[in-house]
């Protein structure tokens, strides 16, 4: 077996662990979601709940069964001098869309990505409220499972899932935007797209589900001209890439990269 084959085997085995971890983190999130939880404010004024903390603990414990370190939104105080030496690591957002969680609209996700030398090569996004699981491994494809059954393995999950992108039968050019974050620059892009494609179908959505809509073919483009962090996009990036699409950095014009010294993303477009 070649080193490339060994690498693919390793990725599939650790992604099986990551997919299971996302599901079990989602169960813990729902326990909190169904209570009268309290909301704290982090240093950047973004909300934090017990669900974020609990999901982080579940995922971190599961990923200890792999050889790769973890960089999580809820455990991000790892110096760049340490993490810049990582060839492969996990990038985790245990609860992406905390604002949507607080609003109780169901549009929040669990995000886990495997990063190799700055590139997102595999990712999973789980939607606890609906039970929908998205996952992708670059070179092997991206999949959507409508109602995830944790009793299985990667092969059975791939067979149970629909390979992305799907034929959605759209009649209008569809643009996906943020439910909670909008900017004047995004509005300008919408105007430009309308001139190019005619009347647009504009879909609002929270969390990394916006990236999933492009991956599964429900949307044609997701322009994001507002701040995000690397853990907001890393898992979705692997899924859209595995589905034959890409996330382009607005500043460089190239695909987005990860594990920068500053973990803040540049503006980007998913298409």
Report on the structure:
By secondary structure, this protein is α+β, with helices and mostly antiparallel strands. The protein folds into two domains: about 5-165, Fructose-1,6-Bisphosphatase, Chain A, domain 1 (2-Layer Sandwich), CATH 3.30.540; about 175-270, D-Maltodextrin-Binding Protein, domain 2 (3-Layer(aba) Sandwich), CATH 3.40.190.80. It is about 35% helix and about 25% strand. The chain is built from eight helices and 14 strands. α1 packs antiparallel against α2. It is globular and about 50 Å long. The mean pLDDT is about 90.
CATH fold-type name of the largest domain: Fructose-1,6-Bisphosphatase, Chain A, domain 1
Structural class: alpha+beta
> On the 0-100 scale, what is the average pLDDT?
91
Query: What is the count of β-strands?
Result: 14
Order of helices and strands: HEEHEHEHEEEEHEEHEHEHEE
Radius of gyration: 18 Å
* Proportion of beta-strand residues: 15-25%
Give the strand order of the largest sheet, numbering strands 1, 2, ... along the chain: 3-4-5-6-7-8-9
Q: What name goes with the CATH superfamily of the largest domain?
A: Fructose-1,6-Bisphosphatase, subunit A, domain 1
So how many helices?
8
Low-confidence stretches: none
- In CATH, the architecture of the largest domain is 2-Layer Sandwich
CATH class of the largest domain, named Alpha Beta
Largest sheet: 7 strands, mixed
Kindly give the count of domains: 2
Q: End-to-end span in angstroms?
A: 35 Å
Tell me, briefly, the overall form: globular
